[in-house]
Amino acid sequence: MSLTLRSISREQHLAYIRSLPSASHMQVPAWGDVKSAWRSESLGWFDRTGRLVGAGLVLYRQVPRVKRYLAYLPEGPVIDWFSPNLEDWLKPMLDHLKQQGAFSVKMGPPVVIRRWDAAAVKAGIQNPDVRRLRDVSATFIEPRAFEVSDKLRRMGWQQGEDEGAGFGDVQPRYVFQIPLRGRSLEEVQKGFNQLWRRNIKKAEKAGVEVVRGGYEDLATWQRLYEITAERDKFRPRPQSYFELMWRVLNSEDPDRMRLYIAQHEGEPVAAATMLIVGGHVWYSYGASANHKREVRPSNAMQWRMLRDAHGLGADVYDLRGIGDSLEDTDHLFGLIQFKVGTGGEAAEYLGEWDFPLNKLLHKAFDMYMSRR
User: Fold this and answer.
1) Does residue 270 register a pLDDT over 70?
2) Cα–Cα 20 to 30 A to 194, which of 37, 119, 186, 325?
3) Mean pLDDT of the 40-66 span
4) For the range 250-255, what are the long-range contacts, defined as Cβ-Cβ under 8 Å and sequence gap of 24 or more?
C-alpha cells in the first residue's frame, strides 16, 4: 500500500467524517475549537489514486518555555486500524508531526479489545472471588486488536501501565454502551433490570418531565453541574466551556450537541449533554440536584435520551467511562452499578499510546504532568 499524508482543510476533514458510519466526537474538526488552549490541525491520508482514505484531528500543546509540542489525537486517528500494513499509516504521521515541532505523540486507537454483556458483568459483581472486570470471561474478544497492540509495540509505541480503572489514560479505557442497531425500543427496555424499570415508572408517576434545552438554558445546566461537582468532589468546567462547545459543535452540524433537562413541578432537578456523530450517540456530561432524587429524574432523563437516540437511527448509545473494579468499596463502583442496569455492555478499548520523538523532553514532560 502506498499512502501519503498531508494537512487538509476542515471541509475535507468533515466531508470524510460524514462519509463514515461514525467516528469519535473528538475527531471532528470542531473539537479543535472546543479545545481552545490547544492548536489544532486536520491530517489526511491519501491512496495512490489521490483518494482521501483516513483523517485525524491533532491537538498541539506547547510545553512551558520551549517551542515544542505534545501532539495528541484523542480517540483517533480515523484510519484502517486492522490494515496489515499499519506502519504505512503511522510512520508518515510521525514524520509530519516531528516536522511540526512535536516532541511526543499521544493517540487513542478507537479499537475495542473485549466486551462483556450485562449478565457477565453482574455475575462478576456477585462473585466474591472476582475483583476486576478483566477477571471476568469476556462475551466477545477481538483477536485483531491484540495484533494491533503487538504491531504498535514493535514500531516503538509505548503504553502506560494499566492501574486498573483505565482512567490513567486521558480518555477512559473502559466504557459502557447500549447497542441499538436492529433492536426495537421494547427490546431495549426489556434489557433494563428491575430497578431501572421501576425507577422510570416512579419518575413518570411523580410527574417528572424531560425537555430539550437550548443555548439559553446552559446557565441552568451550569448550576446543577456545579452542585454535582461539589457533591462528587471534582473541579467543574466553567460555563464558558459549555457555551463554546455548543456554538462550535452546532455550527459544524446543527444537531451535534443537545441539552436535556429533567423537571419536577417546574423545577430543573437533573440535566445532561448529548453528542451525536453519525450512528454513535454519547451521553457526555450529567448533573443533578441534591434534593428530589427520590423522583428519579436521572433515570427518566436517560430513558428519554435513549429513545431519542433510537429515533435518530443510532447504532449505539454510549454512556462513556466506567472503572473496571467490581468491588463495592471502590470509589468508581457506583458508575458501573448504575450503567449495568441498562442491560448494555462494558467495552475495553486498546487505550492510549505514546511515541517519544524526543525521549528527554518526553520524560521531562511526564514528570511535569505528574507534579501538577
Assistant:
1) yes
2) 325
3) 95
4) 251/30, 252/14, 252/28, 252/29, 252/30, 253/28
Rounded to whole angstroms, how far apart are CA atoms 68 and 100?
A: 9
CA–CA dist 282, 262 (Å, integer): 18
Note whether 44 and 55 are within 8 A (CB). Answer: yes
Q: Is the dihedral angle over the CA atoms 20, 284, 258, 339 positive or is it negative?
A: positive
Q: What are phi and psi of 132, to 5 degrees?
A: -130, 155
pLDDT-derived band of residue 372, with 50, 70 and 90 as boundaries? low
How far is residue 275 CA from its own chain's centroid?
Answer: 10
Q: Are strands 209-213 and 257-264 parallel, antiparallel or unpaired?
A: antiparallel
Domains in the chain: ranges and CATH:
4-108+352-371 (3.40.630.30), 112-142+161-349 (3.40.630.30)
Q: Is 342 left (phi over 0), alpha (psi -120 to 50) or beta?
A: alpha
Q: For residue 346, give every residue at least 6 positions away whose Cβ sits within 8 Å of its Cβ, in sequence order, or none.
A: 115, 116, 121, 133, 174, 175, 176, 322, 336, 340
Neighbours of 236 (CB within 10 A): 16
Task: Give the whole-angstrom CA distance, residue 10 versus residue 259.
Answer: 25
Query: Which segments of the chain are extended strands (E)?
Result: 4-7, 39-46, 52-62, 69-73, 102-107, 112-117, 140-141, 174-179, 209-213, 257-264, 267-277, 280-288, 316-321, 345-349, 353-356
Beta bridge partners, 282, equal: 275, 318
User: All 3 cell numbers of residue 334?
Assistant: 457506583
Strand partners, 39: 60
Cβ atoms of residues 48 and 90 within 8 Å: no
d(CA 347, CA 138) in angstroms, rounded, equals 9
Please identify which residue in the block is written with the cell numbers 495484533.
Answer: 147
Q: From CA 144, how far away is CA 113, in angstroms rounded?
A: 8
Torsion of CA 155, 161, 167, 170, to 10 degrees: -40
Q: What is the mean pLDDT of residues 99-124?
A: 97
